[in-house]
Structures are given as structure tokens and as C-alpha cells.
Amino acid sequence: MSQKARIAVIGAGLMGHGIAQAFAQAGHPVMLTDADVDVLHSAPGCIERNLIEMGLSPESALHNISVQADLTSAVERADLIVEAISERLELKQRLFANFVTMAPAHAILASNTSVIPISEIAIGLSRADRGRVLGTHWWNPPHLIPLVESCP
Ligand SMILES: NC(=O)c1ccc[n+]([C@@H]2O[C@H](COP(=O)([O-])OP(=O)(O)OC[C@H]3O[C@@H](n4cnc5c(N)ncnc54)[C@H](O)[C@@H]3O)[C@@H](O)[C@H]2O)c1
Questions:
Q1: Under a CB-based contact definition with an 8 Å cutoff, are residues 113 and 92 in contact?
Q2: Per-residue confidence (pLDDT) for residue 3, from 0 to 100
Q3: Strands 133-138, 65-67: parallel, antiparallel or unpaired by DSSP?
Q4: Which helix (H) or strand (E) holds 117?
Q5: How high is the pLDDT of residue 73?
Q6: What is the pLDDT of residues 90-138, one digit of tens each?
Q7: In angstroms, rounded to a whole number, what is the distance separating the alpha carbons of residues 134 and 39?
Q8: Which residue's CA is the closest to the ligand 1 atom numbered 38?
């Protein structure tokens, strides 16, 4: 992945905002969205507090994060999408079907699921698109623990 790969993080809750922060701290442009506007709009403030607690300047990472009101604008230019929405199979399957139609064909489609088999999330996608799906299970809190299990 190039240094400036564009990352879309879908779900700005407990895990999503920390995942967005980790990529932003590494210098990647991050597009962050959530179905709940209150959660979405509170995410930059949560990230700012995290950075201050870590003794870092909030601007060191916040300038890399853009809050996106809808899924299309979050994923349409992404190189890597990290799904961190609620742990419900049918929601994740619907979202991954949307990724295929909205995101660039080269984009890697990752899920932060804890327990759902990644192959079940990919059911319904074409064989080629299933090959783009990856499990990436981050430790909590993602901005403090640099450990991600990955599963093809
Ligand atoms: N909490 C943990 O310690 C932990 C650790 C590793 C992995 N995970 C996994 O990470 C994922 C997220 O967990 P969390 O703890 O951050 O949950 P959370 O409830 O804090 O956040 C989930 C967010 O997803 C949003 N959402 C739901 N459906 C959506 C949709 N269709 N589009 C956009 N946003 C949507 C919700 O509004 C919510 O803000 C889950 O799959 C969970 O199993 C959690």
C-alpha cells in the first residue's frame, strides 16, 4: 500500500474512531462515516481527546480525517475500506454489497468483525469481489494497541 493510500472507515463508534485515528496518525487521508449523525459528529472530539491524552497535538492527526455524511462520498475514492459497524451479519452483508458498487474496483474491503466468519460476510459477492474481502480484527483501543489479526 502506498504511503498516502486513502482509507475509508465505516462506523465511527468505539472501534471505528480509534481505527480512523491510527491511520490518520500514520499520515493517511481518512474518510469517516456512520449511520448515526450524533456518533459521527462526536468522533473528531473523541479523537482530539485521545490525542491530548497521548501527549500529541490534535492537529497532528485530525487534519487527515474528513467526516463524510454518506457512504458514497466515504468510499468512492478509497484504496482500503475498514468496516467497523455493529456486529450484525445482515448489516455487514448489505454494506459489503454497497462497497462493490460504490468503491473503486481495486479497493480492499476489510471487516473488523469480532466473531462473524469473513466468508459469511462475503456471501453474495462475485468470486472476484470475494477475493478483495479481508478480516482485520483490531485490538481495543485501536489507537493504543498496534495489533491487528488479519484473515483472508
Ligand atoms: N468493542 C470491541 O472491543 C471490539 C474489538 C474488536 C472488534 N470489534 C468489532 O468492531 C465492530 C464495531 O464494534 P464497536 O464496539 O465499535 O461498536 P459501536 O456500537 O461502538 O459502533 C458501531 C457503529 O456502527 C454504526 N453503524 C451501524 N450500522 C451502520 C451502517 N450500516 N453504516 C454505517 N454505520 C453503521 C452505529 O451507528 C455505531 O456508531 C463490531 O463488528 C465489533 O464486533 C469490537
A1: yes
A2: 67
A3: unpaired
A4: none
A5: 98
A6: 999 999 999 999 999 999 999 999 999 999 999 999 999 999 999 999 9
A7: 25
A8: 13
Which among 140, 75, 94, 85 has a CA at the least distance from the CA of 113?
85
Phi first, then psi: what are they for 80, rounded to 5°?
-140, 130
pTM over 0.90: yes
Q: What is the pLDDT of residue 50?
A: 98
Question: Domains (ranges, CATH) in the chain?
Answer: 7-151 (3.40.50.720)
For ligand 1, which residues put their CB under 6 angstroms from it? Answer: 10-16, 34-36, 39, 84-87, 91, 95, 112-114, 137-138, 140
The beta strand positions in the chain, using DSSP E, are 7-10, 30-33, 65-67, 80-83, 108-111, 133-138, 148-151
DSSP 140: S
- Cell, residue 86: 455493529
